[in-house]
Amino acid sequence: MDIGNLKNNYKYYEGFEGEEEIILKIKNDPSINIHIWCGYFNEIFEEPNLDGKGWKGFTRDIHQDEGAYEEDEYEIDIAEYKEDILQYQNRTYEFEETKDVYNLILEFLEYASNHNETVIMEVF
User: Fold this and answer.
1) Is the pLDDT at 88 greater than 80, yes or no?
2) If phi over 0 gives left and psi between -120 and 50 gives alpha, with beta otherwise, what is residue 65?
3) pLDDT tens, position by position, 89-105
4) Taking CA 75 as the corner, what is the angle to CA 38 and CA 88, rounded to the nearest 5 degrees?
5) Cα distances (Å, whole numbers) of residue 103 to 56, 64, 80
6) What is the pTM of this model?
7) What does the DSSP assignment read for the chain?
8) Mean pLDDT throughout 52-70?
9) pLDDT tier at 3 (50, 70, 90 boundaries)?
10) 109 touches 119 (CB < 8 A)
11) Residue 31: CB partners within 8 Å, gap ≥ 6?
12) Is the predicted pLDDT of residue 116 greater than 80, yes or no?
């Protein structure tokens, strides 16, 4: 797997400096990180499942102000967060780039999972 796009990737935050930023990084190698403008992130998770079974992962954190929305640095459970994001895989988005952001997050989580890495999430 080519990890070039997972190293210090600001592509989806450039031009949005000063607005809320979501960062995912590898704990043992912080140079492997992605920075995402909150607008893309919010668009992915803005319409959660309302089946009453509870939310998990990114969806829970965003809508209930938990995880990285509550703590400075938060170690995520990769399997849980990957399961959460996969429920949004067939969604269409207003912003063209949002699907690319979705794929980047998924690629990041898969890399971390495949290499038994710990992922830190931060929200600024």
Assistant:
1) yes
2) left
3) 999 999 989 999 999 99
4) 45
5) 19, 24, 17
6) 0.93
7) ---GGGBSEEEETTT-TTS-EEEEEETTEEEEEEEEEHHHHHHHHSS---SSS---HHHHHHHHT-GGGTSSSEE--HHHHHHHHHTTTT---SSHHHHHHHHHHHHHHHHHHHTT--EEEEE-
8) 92
9) confident
10) yes
11) 7, 8
12) yes
Torsion of CA 98, 37, 5, 82, to 10 degrees: -70
Whose structure tokens read 């031009």?
15
Q: Is 31 exposed, middle or buried (0-12, 13-18, 19+ CB in 10 A)?
A: exposed
Work out whether strand 119-123 and strand 29-37 pair parallel, antiparallel, or are unpaired. unpaired
Cα distance between the two ends of the chain: 29
Structural tokens at position 51: 């089946």
Contact 89, 109 (CB under 8 A): no
Tokens representing 58 are 């990114």
Cβ neighbors of 110 (< 8 A, separation 6 or more) are 82
